[in-house]
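Lab notebook: predicted structure, single chain.

Context: the supervisor wants predicted structures on file for every construct in the current expression panel, including those that have not yet been purified. This is the next one on the list. No modifications to the sequence; it matches the entry in the shared construct table.
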Amino acid sequence: MRESEASVSSGDPAKDASSAGEGMAEAGARAADTAAMIPASVDEDAVEKHRAAKQARIRKKRRAMREGSEDPDGDEPQLPAKVRGKGGGGKKGSALPALRPDIKPDTPALRAERVEAIRRDLVKRRRRKGGTMLLKLWAFVLAPTLIVGYFLWWVASDMYESESKFMVESADGGGSPAGGLLSSFLGGGGINDPVAVQTYIVSRDVLRLLDQEHGWIAHFQAPDLDIINRLDPTATFEEAYAHYQKMVSVSYDPTEGIIEMALVASDPESARRFSSAIIGYAETKVDELSDRVRNDAMQDADRNLADSEAALKRAQLAEAEMRKQQEIFSIESEVATAMSIIAGMETELEALSARLTNLRRVTSESDPRVERIRNQVETLAARIEQRRSAVAGASTQATTSLADASAELTRAQIDVQAAMAIFTSALQARELARANTARQHRYLSVVSTPSVPDESNYPKKPQLLALAFICFLGFYIIFSLTVSLIREQASI
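Prediction complete. Output recorded below exactly as produced.
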């Protein structure tokens, strides 16, 4: 640009002045375009510095133009002396307009320099903001993640998980869902036995047994455990129970009837030992549930047998008392004897009736023989009628007829037979209950023995580290967006 301007200034002064004016106009237009491209958000101090430097250069240029020397900065060649004289004086007929003191002329080089300064300031501010952002990322995301990683790899204790599977079965070969004899005693309650075992495993009773027999609490109070898995030495039993619930998990699959248990300890052997002990406690609990049902059934059978035996004795005593009152040993024999006597008397009556008939044929009614035989016949007929009434129950003289006595004795015998049948059934039920009590109806069958892990299962270091990084990063992003939103709302 300087070379082109120098070549223009070597011609006619008027042409040179006009060319210089056109060049300054073009430069002003380019500077205006460049200024339009400059972002609005610039540093005020930098702008003031650029303005001061610009004014100083303009003053130097004006001084040089008055003295007739070239531009000390070497940005643009000065106009010829004739042109400078005409323009500088501001006289009429000059080729250039007179320079006013309040006008601050500008050049493309000055604008480029100002744009470059603004660009450098923007770059500096972006670098400063980028450094601040990296510092925040380090403070809120990377440093906490590194702390978590250090804890996982160098501080956290290795924990081992022992898994086992078992199920509650009945003596008839059916599994837990099928029920069995115990289910019939409970009215279907045998189906709930696995749920009862599952609840028992995570109960305080099991924790007490584990602590008394295997030292569960002391195992987790070891000083070499990390702060998360270690149980405080001054912890209460409830705190130990809450810790126990975190270390032992039990699940039940009702479709298969299998109970799955997972136990975590600080070493593989302790995990296996604790799991085996819990399975033993669960088996004992199943036996206790079965024993209680069997004992209740046995007590009911004994009580029913005693009641039926007492009822049988009462019925037998009532029958014996009735026989004693009636003075009858056997109603059948009494009836047979009475009927035989009646039959003999009827035979004798028939013989007397025949004699009376024959005698009436040969003598009159006034004959004493006829009267005697007639009296005998009447007396014998009356006795036969009395005997029949005593047997049939139509006699008014007898207190109790054989028919009534037979009915009462039959009822008493029926009562005795019913009491005997009840007693026999109760005796059979008692024998069955005793047989059921003698054998175990339900028992715990181990499907998979407690495993002994050969490597630690917890903590899951890569997964936990990735989760920690994601959590810290999400917290940082949410916090930054919240702060930015608050600042934007406050600036409005």
